[in-house]
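User: Please predict the structure of the protein below. I'd like the answer in structure-token form so I can feed it into my own downstream comparison script.

Assistant: Understood. Taking the following sequence of 195 residues as input:
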Amino acid sequence: MRVTDAIVVLGCRGSAGLTRRVDVGVRLFQAGAAPVLLLSGGGAGPVAEAEIMRRMALARGVPETALLVEPESRDTLANAHRSAQLLGARGRRSVLLVSDRVHLPRAALLFRLAGLCVSCWAAPRPPSIWWEAGIAIRECVALPRSLARALFLRWRRRSSSGREAQRAAPRQERHDHSKAAGQQEKPGDADAGGD
């Protein structure tokens, strides 16, 4: 198993799904797959999915110091961007992404577009094939919208950083011109060699 910077466990609706994902994330952490376990998900309930997963991970023996909790995201795109921000601030870029197998292709794509190097690990299959089929259909429907949003955000970030660079260039140019204007040649500096 290749060691990554962090294991990212994505939240989901339902305690059975959260339990499956956290169990996989904790086993990977205990096997030494990464020094950090990032739990990502806000959810719609009164307690964020990430906080519920944090409690589960602590109960399974993961030290608090190894946990990062991202409780703000409401969808997979936000999971990806917020996780990239949290990890980037710590100089980390490679992740082992844990989710259900039908969710992983879209999640991995969004995490890659957020700038992370991604490997994936699927949680065990749910007991119902009908549940998994329903989620697969949902993922097919969600992919175009998620991809469009991710590409738009990526374009917006790049164009805003380009505008910042353009704004900085004239200031630097003005600074260089004023610096050059303030320096006058001293006699004998122009051509010391002479003919």
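That's the full token string. The CA atoms of residues 39 and 69 lie 5 Å apart.
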